[in-house]
Predict the structure.
Amino acid sequence: MSEHVKSFAAVDLGASSGRVMVGRVGPESLELTEAHRFPNRPVRVPEGLRWDILSLYAGVLDGLRAAGQVDSVGIDSWAVDYGLLDADGALLGNPVHYRDARTEGVAEKVWATVPAAELYAATGLQYAPFNTLYQLTAARSTAQLAAAERLLLVPDLLAYWLTGEAGTEITNASTTQLIDPRTRDWSHDLADRLGIDLTLFAPLRQPGDPAGLLLPRVLEETGLRGPVPVTTVGSHDTASAVAAVPAAGQRFAYICTGTWSLAGLELERPVLTEASRAANFTNELGLDGTVRYLRNIMGLWLLQECVREWGQPDLGALLRAAAEVPALRSVVDAGNATFLAPGRMPDRITDACRESGQPVPESRAEITRCILDSLALAHRRAIREAEALADHPVDVVHIVGGGTRNELLCQLTADACGLPVVAGPAEAAALGNVLVQARAHGLVGDRTSMRRLLARTQPLRRYEPRGDAAAWRAAQDRLTRG
């Protein structure tokens, strides 16, 4: 291998699967291959829904073994969830899943101490019932939290097991609702008022910071030759995905698609207005001092749950059938919390259509089309509202992540937004992870250089808007009235 090309292992954990990807990066080259993929299966135990973190860690070790010799390792995952360690550094139970019911009704208790408007002005984070702040409030009286000496967000926990060194990466920390996005530091006053002990958190790290070396026992188990550094990346997978948006210029919106759709803008400063709070936009921290100004939309979770209920039919055939269904017959609010929990998703979709007085989709193809039309409509609404709230015009929409493989969704999003859509790369989080490592090792330059490299080396597809814009406006009005 050329001395100007290095290899980086990207551990990328999603809500339904994990993967270890290997990125080979040179000044003019970027290649990504999959070393190992493994399932992420949460487990329901008597006390609630939990992540099987030991299985995930085993998958990481298997992946590093399959990856072969690399120059660095980086880890990203979903946000908000954490593990608690005792004084000896041992894990106190499996991390609680963000879909667990323990946070029901907790937000109202928090708002009784710090009103919702004040909380948003301090942290810029949208309301979501599973934010770490609410999880910690729900856990306040538990024996586990009482015994804890350290709290590590999921990617930081895995990095700790690999290196023995603890840190808290900033992009993921910003999803706790305990960070001030203006100072990019903890909001100590807020934590004090809510009785949250910030000393539980390890010191903050920035993307690109060193996070330690693989421990001898990890080297032995993976067959790697040391020293192998772990490099801090944008450990929130959305932060890594946004870093891999192959945009030219600043007048772009992005949609990170997968289990969730995260639709928004990359800004230089947060938007902390009351109008922004009312619209439920979040200000999460990104690479190089940027802010990810976005809205969480339920995403392909809606379709994933339907496909699971239907016994895993062929997805390609289902999408082809959905493309033949008349557009916009029925739509649902894809951001509604009623769709958050697993189970009975087809029935919940049809119930929502019935209750809003729309035609009830009956076949699998009709339900699928309802979901995809609804997602495209939610993308349209999020991007248009973000443009207005941030005073940031948009000329093009970039879709990255797994949803880029869904051609119907990409085309419908272009139609709904009335803007061209550039789809790709599909493995954006892993690529962003790799590029931050490569930058830390001197192979690429600033964000603009990273994005140019992506645009030159990754397969992208462009979708032009088509169809009747008035039909999308009418569908939005119908949904708003409902």
